[in-house]
Amino acid sequence: MVDSQYYLPNDIGVSALDCGEAFRLLSPKEQLYAHYLSRASWYGGLVVLLQTSPEATSIYVLLQRLFRKQTPVQLESVAAAAGLGPEEYQAFLVYASGLYANMGNYKSFGDTKFIPNLPKNKFKDLVWHSKAFQDSPSEVEALWNDCSHLKALFPDPPGITTYFSGNCGLEDAELAQRFLDSKNLSAYNTRLFKTKPVGEKRCYEVRLASADTPCGTYEFEDAVFTVCRGDYAPLMEKVSQNLEKAKAYAANENQKRMLEEYIKSFTFGSVNAHKEGSRFWIKDKGPIVESYIGFIESYRDPFGSRGEFEGFVAVVNKAMSARFARLVSSAEVLLPELPWPQAFEKDRFLKPDFTSLDVLTFAGSGIPAGINIPNYDDIRQTEGFKNVSLGNVLAVAYTTQKEKLTFLEENNKDTYIKWKGPSFEVQVGLHELLGHGSGKLFVQDEKENFNFDQNSVRNPETGELISSWYRGSETWDSKFSTIASSYEECRAECVGLYLCLNKQVLSIFGHEGEEAEEVVYINWLNMVRAGLLGLEFYTPESKSWRQAHMQARFVILRVLLEAGEGLVTLSETTGADGCPDAVIGLDRNKIHTVGKTAIQKFLCKLQVHKSTADVEGGRTLYEGYSAVTSDGSHDFLKLRETVLLRKEARKMFVQANTKVKGETVELLEYEGSAAGLIQSFTERFSEDAEELETHLLELSSHDASCWC
């Protein structure tokens, strides 16, 4: 029997992202701009298949071939003829929709492989009875054979990645990072392949994602590096072509210049061009149609430096954006409230856009609730950034049915359900704007200039002068590598907890008096519950975390439990079903005292280690709280088993498509179901599906030998 954590349940939530009204309120020009940006995003999003696992591409193409020939409704009778029962066919549909929603056969939130929840012979029988197989038996059988990893689970503790060839280890990643730093190259849009040695020298290939293909070779330390353009070339070409089309409908010069730089980036593999595009994007204040695209988040790179592709297009929600604008206006008053000295804050706060958006398109492995971008530290620190909250995602992603609400005292559940949405809205706002948007990195640049006074700035934890900092091309990601993403999410979450205690903040979001206190209570309760739920994403065999945000929330739970005085209680119980259970509690009367003090101290330590590039101190602090053991007052390894027993699958989202008809754009919407999600993907690439699938299989086949 396969462990339930490795398949998606038949009753998994599937919700349609509603953007119909927002899209229809756009002008024809804005709709065309949104359409071509969406096309660029969807084509680029296919890169994620190649970034996820060796077999993801073949599974995707197999499913596309099946559903292009027969819809889910038509395949239902085929499944029955092949001997599948209704539950087995639903499991097949859920697996397929999960593959599309995650852009691969690993969960985007947690990086656990998921497999079909039906016998492999039943899955094969369905494929063999399908019209796709009948029309092209040899092709479909070849795809089936390429999907061998689909049919069985290989729980390999070290895991698998396609950012590095299978023969690369941490030492190779560190050497490659030093090489990239020496050439002032970013790792964001790269992959690393270890090739055949030449004499005594190790040899590597650094691939840049681009449509263009020239190479250059360099000797570095005791190795030879060949830097190649052309990774994902056919897909990057599609991205660039659609960005070029979008440019014709840009609203202003900043949007045009932004798109020109993005096209350069995706054509020539230049991160510097993407940075330039991001600069114009920051200057594009308050657009009606907002978007961003590229190799952005580094959560899934084991080394923490390489970005996964994503692209989004969204429409501004003016009412909610007005609240966020008021928060931005108050930022300069709120930032000094954070628990670190003024010298550890940016020299000046560059007021960003902060908008609430209704997502039209979010192509990638998953959809977040909010974003703070760009991720380039040099731009964020001196030129600015933008924040977005994804309103139509928040509206459906975090709703919870009372009967499925786990690990809370019964008398807290109604309050939790009522205030979770409003409190999370506050947390997202603070997390993105004043969490990711705060704090200074101490830097000595290539010209030996410092951005802080070495003779006066002192470490508030030790009282001593600052003795470490970032040098030259070093960045937060390259320096803190494997812990960087989770550590930063933890810092931002702590900022949200800390500043939500501020009455001015709560008033901005429309909460006063007792209502404001309920928002605070549920925000903190939600955080400690999330810390417990986070144990699902810990792998005991490798003592590693698979999800940055959930590791961060577990760390916060540990900090608040350590604060003592009854602030947080966590007890193991037996549920009404006779199975192990747990209950987590929070004393609301101690949040403003014990809780605030604990977060204040911890948050200051996080910032000091980050500002001063103190990797050793930061790693010791963070990994200490991240440890999941059976020692101490709580047996977290045992609690993890309880969490796995009672876990609920994350929702999947169905997104609309757009289609040009003459001079207008039609919005194609789908039902919130597994079948609706499948239909949306089948129709998304209907015009050039076979060409795309050929490209994907060629790209996958080219590297197949590298993952062994």
Provide a descriptive summary of the structure in words.
The structure is a single chain. By secondary structure, the chain is of the alpha/beta class. It is built from 26 helices and 19 strands. The strands form seven sheets. A five-stranded mixed β-sheet has the order 6-7-8-10-9. Strands 2-3-5-4 form a four-stranded mixed β-sheet. A two-stranded parallel sheet has the order 1-17. A hairpin with a 4-residue loop joins strand 13 and strand 14. InterPro entries: Dipeptidyl-peptase3, Peptidase_M49. One of its GO terms (cellular component) is cytoplasm.
Poorly predicted parts: 150-157
User: What topology, given as strand order, has the largest sheet?
Assistant: 6-7-8-10-9
SS-based structural class?
Answer: alpha/beta
**How would you sum up the global shape?**
globular
β-strand percent reads: 15-25%
* Number of β-strand runs: 19
Query: Largest beta sheet, briefly?
Result: 5 strands, mixed
Average pLDDT figure: 93
Please give the radius of gyration in angstroms: 25 Å
Report the span from N to C terminus.
27 Å
Helical fraction: 40-55%
**How many distinct helices?**
26
Q: What are the main properties of this structure?
A:
single chain, 708 residues, alpha/beta, five-stranded mixed β-sheet, four-stranded mixed β-sheet, 19 strands
